[in-house]
Amino acid sequence: MWALRAAVRGGAWLSRAVRGCRPPRAALLPPPSRPERALAAVRGGLGCSEGPEGGRGGPRAGGRRSRADGEEEPEDAEEEEDEEELLRRDPLLPSGTQRVCLVHPEIKWGPGKPQGTRAEWQVAEARALVCTLDGWSVVATMVVPTKTPDKKLIFGRGTLEQLTERIRGSPEITAVFLNVERLATPTKKDLEAAWRVPVFDRFTLVLHIFRCNARTKEARLQVALAELPVLRSHVKSNAAHLGGRGRSSRYTMGSGESFLQVQQRLLRDRETKIQKALERLRRKRRLLGQQRRRREFPVVSVVGYTNCGKTTLIKALTGDAAIQPRDQLFATLDVTAHAGRLPSALTVLYMDTIGFLSQLPHSLVESFSATLQDVAHSDLIVHVRDVSHPETELQKASVLSALGGLGLPDALLESMVEVHNKVDLVPGYTPVEPDVLAVSALLGLGLDELMARVEDAILRATGRRTLTLRVRLAGPQLSWLHQEATVQAVDVIPEAGAADVKVIISDSAYGRFQKLFPG
After folding, report:
1. What is the layout of strands, in order, in the sheet containing 347-352?
2. Is residue 516 exposed (0-12), middle (13-18) or buried (19+ Cβ within 10 Å)?
3. Which of 190, 178, 37, 32 is CA-nearest to residue 101?
């Protein structure tokens, strides 16, 4: 059976030789003292990286991991080896510089016609996806009408012949991006045979970008899980190809299984191992999330369409110099935590989340649903929109649709703050909708109003209130309040040996204060 597994792994889809793309880890600067305590409460929890580029989640490089109480325990070497094996796979797309021909099938009528968008906007987003990859560029763009998007070759015979002539006649083209969600494997092979260059679809491109941008082990495992439909389709296609040429065998190594059945079983085993590895990481995240909630640091999840400016906004709100926003799609795949102060001096955690995309392949949404579930544990959601984008309303609908599928509490959705970003690119812009804030994260416009709105929403969502408490200077009350509440002001009364302390405190913390210090 070992020989059998080695033979099957020899295929491109289970190779041990090539790892997925992985950018280098960025250095982090320490945040201020109080925010540092907040970050310490969640570091490694909630599936978070430590900063914009993110430290790796999961085990440390030294082969040890932290317990909930802060001590370290030896890493299970076998589990670690299994997880690393699951993350070794061949690239989905050609490596090196690629000059891409972007082909967009335009459906002008019928049930398949996209609503609320235009071909040029879809092409612009597709071009941005291609240019996200280093060394890739779009050298030709073809918007091609089609009446038969559901047929095997998508285009009619005459249109396909014209496309083939143009692509073959352009020696600078090294690959074709067909802007459809998924290409069946037979369709892909037929088009590659006709055009004589690699052909890929939206699913493969987005998945490859995800793989290159995933930094934590959990994100990389989620990408590996999302790749399984691609591997399964390749298995079926290869088995059919071998069977058609009379080269397949009904039985393999006397196991009673066909070659196809063996490969399908190995893929099921791979899926089970990935799910188990993810569950181990999620248990750790849930435990550390409980610790964070016990420390009562409010959490603000910042969500939005990809490249809407979420990371730039968080940098502006926190002043964290370590955050380095990138002007590209899906720059953030791992949930990252950044501590900041509100005007009342209350420390909150801003969670930078994965960006959304229209027509995001379903298996990718499924694979990253656990990461997005972190939003459900937030105290507030801030929805950032790029109002300079021509499809801003369609992008809003995509985000709200995705959030609706997460089963979030109604109260959390109803309290969501909508922020219109990049108003500096739209002269004279004023929001039409009520209770919407217009900002420019890049220029710092409107941030004071946004922080005031966030503070008000957080105080209501977390049951916090502002109180003035008289405490004895000689007792431990003042020190306790500094640890468990947000102290805004201390007015010392020397003759009474006491002080009036203005604090923001949660109901639970105030209850503990009354029990510890009655009277």
Report:
1. 336-341, 347-352, 299-304, 380-386, 417-421, 436-438
2. exposed
3. 178
Q: What does the alpha-carbon distance between residue 281 and residue 227 come to, in Å, rounded to a whole number?
A: 19
Q: Edge-to-edge strand order for the sheet containing 486-493?
A: 464-472, 498-506, 486-493
- pLDDT value at position 286? 64
Residues 140, 220: contact at Cβ < 8 Å?
no
CA distance 285 to 298: 17
Query: In this structure, what token pair is assigned to residue 500?
Result: 């009036």
Strand, helix or coil for residue 199: strand
pLDDT for residue 100? 95
- Alpha helix (H) ranges present in 177-258? 185-195, 202-213, 217-226, 228-244
Q: What is the 8-class DSSP label of residue 301?
A: E
Pairwise CA distance, residues 246 & 11, whole Å: 19
Instruction: Give the span between the Cα atoms of 46 and 408, in whole angstroms.
Output: 16
Look up residue 353 and give its DSSP letter. Answer: -
Cβ atoms of 324 and 52 within 8 Å: the answer is yes
For 227-270, write each residue's pLDDT tens digit. Answer: 887 778 777 766 665 555 544 445 455 566 777 788 888 888 88
Nearest alpha-carbon partner for 384 in 321, 455, 317: 317
Q: How far apart are CA 16 and CA 85, in angstroms?
A: 7
Averaged pLDDT, 326-343: 72
Q: Strands 136-145 and 175-178: what pairing?
A: unpaired
Q: For residue 476, what are the contacts with CB-CB under 8 A and spacing of at least 6?
A: none
- Beta bridge partner(s), residue 305: 356
